[in-house]
Specification:
By secondary structure, the protein is an alpha+beta fold. The chain has two domains: 95 residues, no CATH class; 50 residues, Roll (SH3 type barrels), CATH 2.30.30. The chain is built from six helices and five strands; from the N terminus they run H-H-H-H-H-H-E-E-E-E-E. It has a five-stranded antiparallel β-sheet. Helix 1 runs antiparallel to helix 2, helix 1 runs parallel beside helix 5 and helix 3 crosses helix 4. It starts with a helix and ends with a strand.
Length: 152
């Protein structure tokens, strides 16, 4: 997987809210989806323009910010603290959107056709299988916007 597609696994769900706020267009969403599915060549400048709120902190982590390990560190270790501190453009988040925007680590406790039941943050919740189609009970996954993004 290319680093851009990996980044978009975490970032793409945010784009739906950006679209609702009219910050991006439906055409932008379609282009993001095609890049995520690796059907068109990644356009780093486009991704950086759309997701500048995530890219700016990535740039602070490393000059080589289009590196999967740097992206992983950002989403799994840094992202939530920016939300908590209302920093780097996250000051607008409130309530449920703030909680959905966080990246959670959870454990699969049930498997259904289209979703997993996961224990995270002290609660049992249903989440979309997203990018993790083969998880089993006991597997740890990272969750963003109620979607399984990757196994731990």
């Amino acid at each position: 997987m290319n680093p851009e597609a990996y980044f978009l696994r975490y970032a793409r769900p945010c784009a739906d809210f950006m679209h609702q706020r009219k910050e991006i267009t439906g055409k932008d969403l379609k282009k993001l989806d095609l890049m995520l599915e690796e059907k068109i060549k990644p356009d780093k400048a486009f991704i950086e323009r759309i997701f500048y709120k995530a890219i700016n902190p990535l740039k602070k982590l490393s000059d080589d910010y289009w590196n999967i390990n740097v992206i992983r560190k950002y989403f799994q270790k840094e992202h939530n603290s920016l939300i908590d501190n209302k920093a780097e453009g996250f000051e607008h988040l409130t309530g449920i959107q703030k909680e959905l925007c966080r990246v959670w680590e959870g454990v699969i406790i049930g498997v259904a056709k289209d979703y997993y039941e996961v224990n995270y943050n002290g609660n049992n919740s249903k989440i979309l299988k997203g990018f993790v189609k083969d998880a089993k009970i006991g597997d740890a996954v990272f969750i963003h916007y109620a979607m399984a993004i990757e196994k731990k």
